[in-house]
Design a protein that fits this description.
The longest helix has 29 residues. With 274 residues, the protein is α/β, with parallel strands linked by helices. The radius of gyration is 18 Å and the shape is globular. Helix 4 packs parallel to helix 5. It has a seven-stranded parallel beta sheet, with helices on both faces. The protein folds into two domains: 222 residues, NAD(P)-binding Rossmann-like Domain (Rossmann fold); 37 residues, no CATH class. Nicotinamide-adenine-dinucleotide binds next to helix 2, helix 5 and helix 7.
Length: 274
């Protein structure tokens, strides 16, 4: 991404050197894969998420060393609107700008709707949906002032189709697709784009936990859960990889993706083609 009005076909690394990407929920899984993919193009990275402090510092140091970029870290809780706003302001103070905002932080809870804990519903809506409203609100003025920017929301195949027992998650992911379209329309003439990526199942800690939970709930093996429960809906019968999600993010972030806005791009092995 650069500030010129004409799209540039220069290599991503040249285009991205000096740019700044904030990726929420990037201490693990898809967010970390996306952060690494963006760092590989030369972008400075703001990491966010929970975890062991020493481990996270190790992750940040490793990205800096491997890709020769600057990395900072925010422990902001995406359930707290004030903390989300402060994270964005701190990133702008540290790096001077946010060129690319990736709203990725997310949690899951699986239960029938009449047994769904109210606190879990509230947390999922806050972290998986409302946090994106708060980051976009805070980051957009700077993007508008520069006439360029990229907003990418990591939604889910569950933004496009439902599944039983995932009411809050499915509602939040459908909601973030609505937010994506609205932001795209509001920014359509500004050089900013806003898109969503809709992964199917990706092998990450979030899914690992579901494999264990479902194995216990159904009294079946982990292998059976993967084959017969999780990948039952995923026609290519394999997990997507964090590298595949990272590659789509890098493409959407490029200058040549400047006409793509308001979309929801499935990376789901054919799940939503059903
Ligand atoms: P993950 O559990 O590996 O990572 C989640 C990240 O979010 C971690 O860094 C965690 O610390 C962070 N996080 C959680 N709660 C937070 C909070 N309150 N504040 C700040 N950070 C918080 O999960 P993942 O599988 O990598 O999921 C990332 C995103 O991708 C989520 O939005 C998820 O819904 C979406 N997604 C995942 C899959 C999949 O199969 N793994 C499929 C579709 C969509």
């Amino acid at each position: 991404m650069n500030d010129q009005s004409q799209p540039s076909a220069s290599p991503a690394s040249a285009a991205w050197a000096g740019r700044v990407a904030l990726v929420t929920g990037s201490t693990s899984g898809i967010g970390l894969g996306v952060a690494r993919a963006l760092a590989a193009t030369g972008a400075s990275i703001v990491l966010n998420g929970f975890g062991d402090r020493a481990e996270i510092e190790g992750i940040a140091d490793a990205i800096e060393a491997e890709f020769n970029v600057q990395v900072s870290y925010s422990d902001a809780d995406m359930a707290s609107p004030a903390a989300v706003e402060q994270m964005v302001l701190d990133a702008i103070e540290r790096f001077g700008r946010i060129d690319l905002l990736v709203n990725n932080a997310g949690i899951q809870h699986v239960a029938p709707i009449d047994e769904f804990p109210i606190a879990r519903w509230d947390a999922i809506i806050a972290i998986n949906l409302s946090s994106a409203f708060h980051t976009i609100r805070a980051a957009l003025p700077g993007m508008r002032a520069r006439g360029t920017g990229r907003i990418i929301n990591v939604a889910s195949a569950h933004g496009l189709v439902g599944s039983p027992f995932k009411s809050a998650y499915v509602a939040a992911k459908h909601g973030i697709l609505g937010l994506t379209k609205t932001v795209a329309l509001e920014t359509a003439e500004t050089g900013i784009t806003c898109n969503a990526i809709c992964p199917g199942y990706v092998a990450t800690p979030l899914v690992e936990k579901q494999i264990d939970d479902q194995a216990k709930a159904h009294g079946i093996s982990r292998e059976a859960v993967v084959r017969d429960v999780l990948l039952a809906q995923q026609p290519n019968k394999r997990f997507a990889t964090v590298e595949e999600i990272g590659a789509v993010t890098v493409f959407l972030a490029s200058d040549l993706a400047g006409s793509i806005t308001g979309t929801a791009i499935p990376v789901d092995g054919g799940w939503t083609a059903h």
